[in-house]
Design goal:
single chain; 3 domains; elongated; 249 residues; mainly alpha; 10% strand
């Protein structure tokens, strides 16, 4: 500990305040052992830019180390958009639910209006179903982490009984089961398919490849090919206008 303090003084770095507990590692057994092993070290210039920055100890689900998070002023997020989750496809009977909801929506009007209205109806059904089936998973997960963290805090002060140790083990096992339910969703968000294909995860690669994939060299409409962008716009517009328009007798 003295060597670590000397290192901080020599490099002129700052060890920010830690909130949520005094230690970042502990070992249970006949004699509990606790220690502060993990730190965020920042420069004085960094602290001047973010004066409200601090370290926060998070609950530990499995490891004997507590994860720590470097926090500063929170950013306000805008409204989130609804997205289709691949994990829904793993739910047994999901396609039957979609068929049922699609049939429930009775709409009259043009074909394009019927399709758009039915899609909105199914979207609202999906959002409600997702909250009921999967939304509670996050609540359960955080509740289990809260149980684990409260037992860890008690261990630092007065030790644990055999019953409390078993409660912590049960909470960790339940947490591990729940976290598997989010794995598919995280895979989708991380775009794991790009890595599976052997692509290098670089900014230039994604920018150039996606630009090539999303570009069109030419467009053929009614047997006529258009190669230049200015000449493409009108045929594309007229094609979709006729596709989504109906003449009422």
């Amino acid at each position: 500990m003295v060597e670590f303090q000397n290192f901080i003084n020599y490099t002129a770095l700052l060890d920010l305040p830690l909130k949520g507990g005094d230690f970042t590692w502990s070992r249970s057994g006949d004699e509990s052992v606790c220690s502060r092993l993990d730190h965020f070290l920042v420069s004085a210039d960094c602290e001047e830019l973010f004066p409200d920055m601090f370290q926060k100890r998070l609950p530990r689900p499995i490891s004997d180390h507590f994860p720590i998070c470097l926090e500063t002023t929170r950013l306000e997020r805008g409204r989130t958009h609804s997205k289709f989750e691949n994990m829904w496809l793993e739910f047994e009977g999901f396609s039957d639910l979609i068929k049922e909801w699609w049939g429930e929506a009775q709409v009259d009007g043009y074909a394009s209006y019927i399709v758009a209205t039915k899609l909105k109806f199914v979207k609202e059904k999906l959002k409600k179903w997702n909250r009921e089936m999967f939304g509670d998973v996050k609540t359960q997960k955080y509740n289990l982490l809260g149980i684990t963290n409260s037992i860890d805090v008690k261990e630092e002060t007065s030790g644990l009984t055999s019953v409390e140790c078993q409660q912590r083990r049960d909470a960790k096992e339940d947490w591990a089961k729940l976290i598997l339910m989010e794995e598919i969703s995280w895979r989708q968000k991380s775009r794991a398919l790009w890595l599976k294909a052997g692509d290098r995860n670089t900014k230039i690669f994604h920018t150039t490849v996606r630009r090539k994939v999303n570009s069109m060299a030419f467009v053929a409409v009614d047997g006529v090919q258009y190669d230049a962008l200015p000449t493409m716009k009108a045929p594309i517009y007229n094609f979709y206008k006729s596709l989504f328009s109906e003449s009422e007798p």
